[in-house]
Amino acid sequence: xxxxxxxxxxxxxxxxxxxRMAAFYTGLFGAEVVKDLSLTTPVFGEGVGVPGATARTxxxxxxxxxxxxxxxxxxxxxxxxxxRAPANAPGLRHLALRVDDIGAxxxxxxxxxxxxxxxxxxxxxxxAARGTRFLYFRDPDGNLVELIEPxxxxxxxxxPDTRTRPAGTGSPTEAESEGNRT
Length: 182
Fold this sequence. Notes:
This protein has helices spanning about 20-30, 40-45, 100-110, 155, 175-180, and strands at about 10-15, 30-40, 55-60, 70-75, 95-100, 115-120, 135-140, 145-150. With about 180 residues, it is an alpha/beta fold. It has a four-stranded mixed beta sheet with strand order 1-4-3-2, with helices on one face. The relative contact order is 0.15.
């Protein structure tokens, strides 16, 4: 019997610098802080499986999203794997956000000095994803963030996409475009 799920509530990112990460997401994407909590009760540590743990957490709502990004800074951090691991490393690997104009988003990222690690590119196959444009970049902690511009309605309907592609874009490799890239 499957567990009945009513939706995705939040995606959690643990950070050593909560204020820096909150400023990044609010400043770049216009996210709104909807909660700012100190988690200091024994129940918190027991619930996350780290007895005695305390933390501060901020919930950010991105414009147009119902799921929030939960940023948490623990008082003491456990050493972790490199957050700058490439996209093909096992584990939760990136946060994906929808944008209306990938070219403008790429320009804004570069103007602000953010590291774009891949793209923007336009998917040419499989047919179900044709016309989707995306890029990967890193947040201040080195975590991957994907920005996705869905295909236009005409491209989704199989008609030629008449939008101008951003300069310097190309298609993902066949292995990327044939598989589930996100």
